[in-house]
Amino acid sequence: MARSNYTFTSESVSEGHPDKVCDRISDAVLDAFLTEEPFARVACETFATTNRVVIGGEVGLSDQDKLKDYLGRIDAIARDCIKDIGYEQDKFHWETVEVTNLLHEQSAHIAQGVDAGEDKDEGAGDQGIMFGYATTETPELMPAPIQYSHAILRRLAEVRKDGSEPDLRPDAKSQVSLRYENGKPVEVTSIVLSTQHSGEDQDSAYIRGVVEPYIREVLPAEWITANTEWWINPTGTFVIGGPDGDAGLTGRKIIVDTYGGAAPHGGGAFSGKDPTKVDRSAAYAARYLAKNVVAAGMAERCTLQLSYAIGVSKPLSIYVDTHGTGQVADAAIEKAVDQCMDLTPRGIREHLGMNRPIYARTAAYGHFGRAASDDGGFSWERTDLVDALKKAV
Predict the structure, then answer these.
(1) 17 is catalytic
(2) How far is CA 329 from its chain centroid?
(3) Of 41, 154, 173, 301, which is the active-site residue?
(4) Could you write out the three-class secondary structure of 205-239?
(5) What predicted TM-score, i.e. pTM, was given to this entire model?
(6) In the chain, fewer beta carbons within 10 Å around the N or the C end?
(7) Is 2 helix (H, G, I), strand (E, B) or coil?
């Protein structure tokens, strides 16, 4: 039997965190290639450290001349990302950072498995397992600790960028611990925030005075009590930040990117991967399906797993667990989701409209729990499969 009274914690990191700088650059490269060609192949990895960014991996376009042209644009793409994030410090500045581009053409052996899979359909780009999750804890059907951890940092980024809080700098981490009663969040037991700032003389108390109003603005007021512990820049000064303070790498924040540890993770990172890579597209599809199951009232919580083999188009398995909250049998939901959505790589991309430059915006503040946009961004957050699922069970 699942516990109903407990405390659970999740963390988030800002767009200026070293790993997130790398995720942003990798996804911006992906968007650039998808802008040129909807079926471009991209597997881009980025490494960042003091005064240096290194970009490598595999890319592919049908026109080799265009491929060479786009490879020549990588330097500018990286600098634009760093500028937008806000890095203009001595040892990591968008104008002076050294950018090394090691991207090259995609392996023909990988391509053949993807391009000519089982039954001459497009095969999965790799083997693996992917999980999706949804819960009624928040309006976005996301676990509350990770959703509010993201919201805190997103709000602080807004006031940093619009000039309201000039003392804030790009690198930051948040952590929210929530106490649950009868399975529902009722109180914030602790708030942890470490944010880069401008001056050596700005201590923890000063930074708390800057950020606390925005944290209170984001969190439900009734959740913050006299017992809530505040830990703001608990180590003191945090002036040296970003890739100058700690090296960054694409794909190292997979729990931040998904459900904050409240649900399983298959292990594959998302950023820098085009949607033929089921690490990304099938994880998005699993979230889409789990969210629609919960939105349809079939369960209060839903975990959904998909599995794939490289070169094989259809998923090898579909697994659903509603954690004892289901109004419909889990096995019936498994059959329904298989009936309502084509879960081949091509089927996922077409259903969710994923062959578009919509990925750079996912690189920070979570790939899930965001509002679907008119241009197709966060299409996996739609709840337009509810009626079909209801009819299928």
Answers:
(1) yes
(2) 30
(3) 173
(4) HHHHHHHHHHHHHHCCHHHCCCCCEEEECCCCCCC
(5) 0.95
(6) N
(7) coil
